[in-house]
Specification:
Layout lengths: L14 H10 L2 H4 L13 E5 L5 H8 L3 E5 L3 H10 L5 E4 L16 E7 L7 H14 E13 L13 H10 L3 E9 L3 H6 L2 E8 L7
C-alpha cells in the first residue's frame, strides 16, 4: 500500500537514519506534554503512523494492547523486527479512511498520531478527524504532534493552522485538553525553524440515560 500513500514518500529511502534518530528519543521526553491525559492501562491504543514502533512498544510494555498502523512497508517491516512485542497488532493502512479498522468504531481508549497530520491536505484532515472520532471510545483521548516549518526535500507536507485543528475537533464534539507549541528536539531542526504543536482532545463520556 505504501506506494499509494503520498505521505510516506521519502521514509523508506531514509529508514536507516530515521530508525537511529527516532529510537534515540525516549517516549516520555517526546510526549511529556500529554502523558497526564492518557487513560491508565489496561486499554486499547491506536498508534497511527507508528514509524519505528518506539511508541507502540512503550504502550505494550506499559500494559496496553496496541494497534499500530504504518503504511510504509519498509518502516513497518523493520519496526516489527525491532519491537516484536506480542501485544502489538501491525496494520498496513492509512488515513483518512483507515479501511482495515471497519467494525472497530468506539473501541479505542487512546488514538495517537505523531508526525502524521501534516501529511494530509485540508480535505483529508476533515475526513480523517471524523473517522478518528468514531473510532474513539466514549471518554477516550486523541493526541497529535503536528510539525511546522520548512519541508524536507522529497517529502509532502501541508501547513496545519491551529485554528483549523481546534475547529475540526469542536465540530466532532471533542473537548480540548492541550494545545501547546514546542521546539524541535533535534538541533538541526531547531536551527531550521522547525516547531511542533501538541494537541490532546477527549471524547465526552456517554451520559446515563
Amino acid at each position: 500500500m505504501a506506494e499509494h500513500v503520498r505521505g510516506t514518500r521519502g521514509y523508506a529511502e531514509e529508514a536507516d537514519d530515521l530508525f537511529i534518530r527516532y529510537e534515540s528519543y525516549d517516549f516520555e521526553s517526546v510526549h511529556a506534554g500529554w502523558l497526564d491525559f492518557i487513560p491508565p492501562p489496561p486499554g486499547l491504543v491506536l498508534d497511527i503512523g507508528a514509524g519505528t514502533g518506539r511508541d507502540a512498544a512503550w504502550f505494550s510494555r506499559a500494559g496496553y494492547s496496541v494497534v499500530a498502523v504504518e503504511p510504509s512497508d519498509e518502516m513497518r517491516r523493520r519496526a516489527k523486527a525491532l519491537h516484536p512485542e506480542p501485544d502489538i497488532e501491525w496494520l498496513d493502512d492509512s488515513l483518512p479512511s483507515l479501511g482495515l479498522l471497519a467494525g472497530r468504531e468506539g473501541t479505542f481508549d487512546l488514538v495517537q498520531l505523531s508526525a502524521v497530520w501534516m501529511h494530509l491536505d485540508a480535505g483529508e484532515r476533515t475526513a480523517a478527524l471524523s473517522r478518528l472520532a468514531r473510532l474513539m471510545k466514549p471518554g477516550g483521548v486523541l493526541t497529535l504532534m503536528v510539525r511546522h516549518g520548512p519541508v524536507p526535500e522529497g517529502r509532502i507536507m501541508f501547513e496545519v493552522p491551529t485554528e483549523e485543528m481546534l475547529m475540526l475537533a469542536e465540530a466532532e464534539g471533542l473537548d480540548g485538553l492541550l494545545c501547546e507549541k514546542r521546539d524541535a528536539a533535534g538541533e538541526a531542526n531547531r536551527k531550521a525553524g522547525v516547531t511542533w504543536m501538541n494537541y490532546a482532545f477527549r471524547k465526552p463520556a456517554e451520559q446515563p440515560g
